[in-house]
Specification:
alpha+beta, BirA Bifunctional Protein, domain 2, Rossmann fold, 2 domains, binds adenosine monophosphate
Length: 420
């Protein structure tokens, strides 16, 4: 007999965790809908070329893509993130800007799986296309801040930086490259390899031995054009005006190549592992054009659902939603009464459960306890012959007999589900 397990980097999200995931997305929907963001669903896989726009120098493109040739000979890939898909969608449908959308769902990256880092992971996120107003950057950042606050998280730190415009960035990358070349003997073999591919990413190094050389590297702020510097100043002023705390982190370069000007990341100080980033985003003013659309500025962020929930666990906030039943129907007369009453309770808006398989009174009572129901409605042979049901409060043990025909309305009223 074959015995199968989930493949590395994937997990089953079992009950009750899956219900918590759904509440997470509902909470996100509530926050971003208040700001006029509308839901979008983009495909789980696209032409590989859409994702290659994320940048040839990124791990996501070079090492982590789940790509394959389909039966029609198309080279496609499972999405590693959703910004590229949203921008492809904008280029394809040309909606009127500003286009403000939000999404949720799984992404796929062939990463080294570890705690908080998976090959299939979920994100929620927003994208706002069609405006380069720095106050839009502020509004977008504020949405993530509001969301984390609504979850109950208190230990999330906002890091911001500006990567400048593409010319600024090119000059900075050149300077950085020269700097690291000059101190190459202080770099690990891994960072030497990274330096060749993408000098910016050397700044991400967490290796203790390289912290000094990274700390002394030139900063992006010295390379910003007047426009980019002014944009960044306005973003900081906007955050100040909203009372949003932030740390300017000039080492924040973020993984994907398409970012320009504002970039930001949210770190949870409650998480102890290396995986402390719960979300991040930034401006990507050239991406829509790269994908064949009109020149369109854009900004967005993505929040990792898995990792943010780990942060919620660490801070003991955002508990699982209740899965308790309102009523548990105990029927020792064969089960037909339970079948009908459960149905009537559900029609009346009461969550109702029952036991199956004609089990004894004691076993059914145990199941009622386990369900967390507020009331047990009991029908035995005596009750049935008298046309009544016993209603037992599972909170204080009080019980009363109610006419069978009236029991649903009575209990529903007790539960505040209908007017009696
Ligand atoms: P990124 O799309 O790389 O900017 O990531 C945004 C957020 O998604 C991160 O801050 C993480 O919370 C989450 N994330 C990214 N990659 C993974 C992964 N492999 N497993 C779990 N969460 C991830």
């Amino acid at each position: 007999m074959p015995s199968f397990q989930t493949t590395p980097g994937t997990r089953d999200i079992l009950p009750p965790d899956a219900a918590r995931w759904r509440s997470f997305v509902e909470e996100f929907d509530a926050v971003v809908s208040l700001a006029g963001f509308q839901h979008i669903v983009v495909p789980m896989f696209e032409d590989l070329g859409v994702f290659q726009r994320l940048g040839d120098a990124t791990d996501v493109v070079t090492k982590e893509m789940y790509d394959f040739v389909d039966k029609g000979g198309r080279h496609v890939a499972l999405r590693p993130e959703q910004t590229a898909g949203v921008c492809r969608s904008f280029a394809q449908h040309r909606p009127l800007p500003p286009w403000k959308v939000w999404y949720s769902g799984p992404n796929f990256r062939y990463e080294r799986a570890q705690h908080g880092r998976y090959r299939q992971f979920d994100q929620v996120g927003v994208e706002a296309l069609g405006s380069d107003d720095p106050l839009l950057d502020v509004e977008v950042i504020a949405l993530a801040v509001d969301f984390f606050r609504n979850l109950g998280l208190r230990n999330v730190v906002l890091n911001i930086n500006s990567l400048g415009d593409s010319g600024d960035r090119a000059r900075y990358v050149e300077a950085l490259s020269q700097y690291f070349q000059g101190r190459i003997s202080e770099l690990s073999p891994e960072s030497v390899a990274t330096l060749e591919r993408n000098p910016l990413r050397v700044l991400d190094s967490k290796r203790e031995s390289e912290q000094a050389v990274v700390a002394q590297a030139p900063s992006i702020s010295g390379f910003l054009s007047d426009e980019a510097a002014s944009h960044f100043t306005q973003v900081k002023q906007g955050l100040d005006a909203l009372g949003i705390a932030y740390v300017v982190n000039e080492r924040l370069v973020r993984g994907l190549d398409y970012y320009c000007r504002t970039t930001f990341e949210f770190q949870s100080t409650a998480l102890e592992s290396a995986q402390t980033a719960v979300g991040g985003g930034g401006r990507y003013d050239g991406l829509v054009e790269d994908l064949g659309g009109p020149a369109t500025p854009g900004i967005g962020f993505a929040i990792g659902l898995d990792r943010t929930l780990l942060a919620c666990d660490a801070e003991q906030v955002f508990p699982h939603p209740s899965t308790k039943a309102d009523v548990f129907v105990i029927d020792t007369t064969g089960g037909m009464q339970a079948l009908q009453l459960c149905q009537q309770f559900r029609t009346a808006g009461c969550a109702s459960e029952r036991a199956y398989g004609g089990r004894a009174m004691k076993a059914q009572m145990k199941a009622a306890d386990k369900s967390g129901a507020t009331y047990a409605v009991i029908i035995g042979t005596d009750e049935l012959s008298q046309g009544v049901a016993t209603v037992k409060s599972m909170v204080d043990g009080q019980q009363e007999e109610i006419l069978l025909d009236a029991v649903v309305q009575h209990v529903a009223a007790q539960l505040g589900k209908v007017n009696s």
